[in-house]
Amino acid sequence: MGAATFDTSASFAVEMDSRDPLAGFREKFHIPFGPDGRPSVYLCGHSLGLQPKNARVYIEEELEDWARLGVEAHFHGRHPWMPYHRQLTDQMAEIVGAKPLEVVVMNSLTVNLHLMMVSFYRPTQTRHKIVVEAGAFPSDQYAFSSQIRFHGFDPATSLIELTPRPGEADIRQEDIDSLLEGEGAAIALVLLGGVNYATGQLFDMKAITRAGHAQGCIVGFDLAHAAGNVPLQMHNWDVDFAVWCNYKYLNGGPGCAGGCFVHERHARAFDVPRFAGWWGHDQEIRFLMGPDFQPMAGAEGWQLSNPSIMSMVPLRASLEIFAEAGMQPLRVKSESLTGYLEFLLDQQTREGFSVLTPREPNRRGAQLSIRIHRGGRFICDQLVDQGILCDWREPDILRVAPVPLYNTYHDVYQFVERFVSVLP
Ligand SMILES: Cc1ncc(COP(=O)(O)O)c(C=O)c1O
């Protein structure tokens, strides 16, 4: 649906919700309450997704099995813990566009990023640089710099930060291409966010991977803001590896286990250096307790510890909902909801803000980042006080994410109405 078909009335929002084929999915989530005791307008799915109602039911099942069976639940529970993570694999592979062999749920994002860099950032004296986006999420920046130092290099000379052109908010694909063409021979690794956490820019991961590979670089992505948000094709785009968290658009709950993709062509690269733990060891012989590490084929070979079952249970509940809804219908609604948000903001005559996120639907996901020119964090605080939950990123960005699984057109309408009223 394009801007021409939206209108500014409240009744339009209500009408859109009544015609939304995915509207019923909202019922599957707990919507937090606002200060007035009514359901809030929750636009923070880019930060922490909402709780699927089945999460509690499934957690209680695991608690019961633990109480009833103790250690035996590893093999004889209703959802045996030993292979528990495998129940997530097919649906997770579907979400990131991968083969099951290429995907595992394990650890958390930053840990997985380090594990991937241990294997796939192999700097040499001539090829030691990492290309990243300027202003990448801080944890990624710390990981990049510490990995560079770990190999005896200096971030000042080994880190290349892609920046938007002066006066622009997003990074142009042509600038990525020309950097790779110019400096490719010195670049070991290209590692960008699939969707930038601050601006909401969705990168062309296929084009970046092709351009990086043409220069002999390894290409990886941090999909924290992309997984469950936009359709992904990690396998077909030929990406080497990717990592993500499952607590944002994927609703796995705070601190949920993260995700990791390793392309099939590396599945049996047993000679690449890797940090090892018993859960990555060939499961057929794991309990022989032998001293020599034999990694499993595929992404599972990078596991370290036996995983926290409780941290994966809500994710199972959420992935079932994703499987029912389907990424493609979700994307259709998402583009429409975000387009509607943009349309309503465009109609405002009040000054004091501008939208940073690209205007083209294929260059963004569910998030619009609004630069606040006056009033700062106070704007966000006032919205939260009124039951409109969005978030603030220093120094001046209000991030708003209408999530197609549980947000409504009326949520978007209410956000814009209140947002405009709190602008100074
Ligand atoms: C883009 C990005 N990368 C990395 C992280 C860090 O994730 P974790 O704390 O799960 O390692 C986050 C967290 O929000 C993020 O948004």
Question: Would you write up a description of this structure?
Answer:
The chain is of the alpha/beta class and 424 residues long. The protein has helices at residues 10-18, 54-69, 73-76, 86-96, 109-120, 138-150, 155-158, 173-183, 205-214, 309-325, 327-347, 377-385, 409-422; strands at residues 41-42, 103-106, 129-133, 159-162, 187-193, 218-222, 241-244, 258-262, 353-355, 368-372, 388-389, 391-393, 397-400. Strands 2-8-7-6-5-3-4 form a 7-stranded mixed sheet, with helices on both faces. The protein has a 4-stranded antiparallel sheet with strand order 9-10-13-12, covered by helices on one side. A two-stranded parallel ribbon has the order 1-11. Helix 1 (10-18) packs antiparallel against helix 13 (409-422). The structure holds pyridoxal-5'-phosphate.
Q: Roughly what fraction of the amino acids lie in strands? A: 5-15%
State the secondary-structure class.
Answer: alpha/beta
Contiguous helical run count = 13
DSSP strand count? 13
Order of helices and strands: HEHHHEHEHHEHEHEEEHHEEHEEEH
Low-confidence stretches: none
Mean pLDDT figure: 96
Rg of Cα set: 22 Å
